[in-house]
Amino acid sequence: MTDFISGFRKSALGDKPAEGRQSGANLLGTLARYPALTKSFLAFNGHILYGTSLSVRQREILVLRVAVLRHCGYEWAQHVILGREAGLGDAEVAGIIDGPDAPVWSPADRALVCAVDDLLTDGKVGDDTWEVLAEDLDEQQLMDVVFTVGTYEMVAFVLRSFGVELEPDLAPHIQDRGKADTAGR
Hints:
Blueprint: H1 2-13, H2 25-31, H3 35-51, H4 56-69, H5 73-85, H6 90-98, H7 107-122, H8 127-136, H9 139-161
């Protein structure tokens, strides 16, 4: 199991240093129970994390909004760290919880938040949202928006369904305003 976890981390991080990263040991331990599935998922998720055509900031806005709407504290805690590293400030983090009407958003960022809401509510990006996104994003970026939301919705399902608990180093990163739970479940 230790070799699998080590390989998982190496595959997930690629050549990126792991300094300052939360361990994710509870999630990794859960996924390690099904190595074949996890390896296939990891190959795909590696693109979403490190091969995406979106900026890290854009990706983290999407992932954090999924975490809020799916009430997934584990996903929230992991990605609020990444979002802050990508430049999201306190007002933007609060805006992700508040939604697309938060006054902090530029039109492009508001469209990202709306895209998550549209996808998780209606199963597609609404025409008005798509039009705004298409003003700033190319075809591949638009595809990455949809795949990022879908991937992290699935991750939230996994975390909550399997009751993956927060590691102690993630607990300080929970922002609970009634929408982000304190544990994966």
